[in-house]
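User: For my dataset I need records formatted as: sequence, then structure tokens, nothing else. Please produce one.
Assistant:
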Amino acid sequence: TGGGTTNPEHAHFDITAAAGGASDARVRFRYIGDFDWHWAIDNVKIIGVGTGQEPRPGLGVMDINFAREKNGQPVASNLPGPYFADASTSTPVVFEFEGEPNQPVLLLQGLFNPNGWDFLVPGKLDIGIFNPGPMTFSFLEQLAFGADPGYINSLFLTNSTGALQLAFPLPPFMVGQTYNFQAGVLSANINIALTNMVQLDVVN
């Protein structure tokens, strides 16, 4: 990092390549500066992250009920997924999407399958199964698409800032069920950008 700050500055660094697959590695910090007051490092963690699609601010991000990845970090950390969240039938479940402005959002639900297929630029599909031979998908369901007709579909459209927030009540029959969601946000440059995946448990 560089520059100064009056508040704590949180940072994440991917050291996978630097570690080179070693089973025993060390991390050191080097301070370089001129006429500086001081430098402080606190709360350092070395963690293994998921293998799924990471949130991509400005292209494809999905959060549901303040989801967290396996180390407890929020979607805003931009760490690779999958992410996990709980929901209750007593309060609406809140979906938040981010992408390019005024673009349709495709909401999918399917089989939990992190890093099941990497489509490179569009991103990793972490739910369902993709068969590249006949180019088919299985265990994957389209729930809504902002470019399709119908009232519910019409809600799935980012606003002029690229954001979308929707809240839905959950019926009692969903208690005890687990749902795996991933979305795609249409993009002017890459056709569609896949978001991170969120697994939602309806606990009560």
